[in-house]
Write a structure and sequence with these properties.
Blueprint lengths: L2 E7 L2 E8 L4 E5 L10 H7 L4 E5 L16 H14 L5 E6 L1 H12 L4 E7 L8 H16 L1 H10 L4 H6 L1 H12 L3 H12 L5 H6 L4 E6 L7 H8 L5 E5 L5 H4 L1 H13 L2
Parallel strand pairs: 3-4, 3-5, 5-6, 6-7, 7-8
Antiparallel strand pairs: 1-2, 2-4
Helix pairs in contact: 1-12, 2-3, 4-5, 4-8, 5-7
This protein binds D-malate.
Length: 263
């Protein structure tokens, strides 16, 4: 059973959980998510690894430090957490926005990275169209955040997935609705200005695993194939949409397990 704890960082409380012993796996959730995204996956790995999950800035029970949370702000907070826990090298695993944070962490703190896993994520920056969509999203959020959250979460899953795992999606939506207004806006603004980190897929001196969803409507599989081409990153595709850790937790476990075993 993981223990939920907190530590003090820049005048806020950061919520994280810790369980198990061994080499460290640190899991970073995506936008509108929190550390509970990983419950099924971390339960599996807890007998062999030290598992850390954290609520990113402005998500779950972690406070906000500003009106823009850049990926670098998030990465600095993650570094403060691993320093607090006296950890040196970590296997870092990020879902979507958590992947952007993992990449920022890998760029800023390369000596602390043992391996890097991106799930339903990309190393590329927002293109112009996505930037415009971020502005639109911010306008909607300012008018009615719960409506935005409900719409955003429902649209992540296709009809089959809604039929297959309705309880999981309902729980996921409830968790998303806990995200504070400032946290939502700060992440949208932070994601909009994030930089391209494709070079890390080529030159990052650690093993890299990319898990992509065949039906992901947020991260196109074609683009992910393109960005991982000619890199040393191992690309695996999964029969799911944008939230692999929820939709196909067993497959995420299997892929991660064989990747970690080979390290
Ligand atoms: C996420 O799931 O973290 C977001 O959809 C990522 C994004 O909007 O770029």
């Amino acid at each position: 059973m993981s223990q939920v704890k907190s530590f003090h960082y820049k005048n806020i409380s950061v919520n994280y959980s810790e369980v198990g012993k061994g080499s460290t796996l640190l899991f970073l959730h995506g936008f509108l998510e929190n550390h509970s995204l990983w419950d099924e996956i971390t339960a599996y790995f807890a007998s062999k690894y030290r598992i850390i999950t954290v609520d990113l800035l402005g998500h779950g029970d972690t406070g906000c430090i500003g009106y823009i949370h850049t990926m670098e702000d998030q990465a600095d907070m993650v570094y403060a957490l691993i320093s607090h826990l006296r950890l040196r090298k970590i296997n870092i695993i990020g879902h979507s926005m958590g992947g952007y944070v993992a990449l920022a962490f890998a760029e800023l703190y390369p000596d602390h990275v043992k391996s890097l896993t991106l799930i339903n994520s990309t190393s590329r920056a927002d293109n112009e169209e996505r930037k415009i969509n971020r502005d639109r999203a911010m306008d909607i959020v300012k008018k009615n955040a719960p409506t935005f959250v409900r719409m955003a979460t429902q649209n992540l899953f296709d009809e089959d997935t809604h039929q297959r795992i309705p309880e999981k999606i309902a729980q996921f939506t409830q968790e998303a609705l806990r995200t504070p207004l400032q946290g939502i806006l700060a992440s949208l603004a932070g994601m909009k200005i994030r930089i391209d980190r494709e070079a890390l897929l080529h030159f990052g001196p650690y093993p890299k695993l990319i898990l992509a969803g065949e039906k992901d409507t947020i991260m196109s599989l074609e683009e992910i194939k393109e960005e991982t081409q000619d890199t040393e990153a191992l690309l695996e595709t999964l029969p799911c949409g944008h939230v692999a850790p929820l939709e196909v937790a067993d497959l995420v476990i299997a892929k991660l397990k064989s990747f970690l075993k080979a390290l």
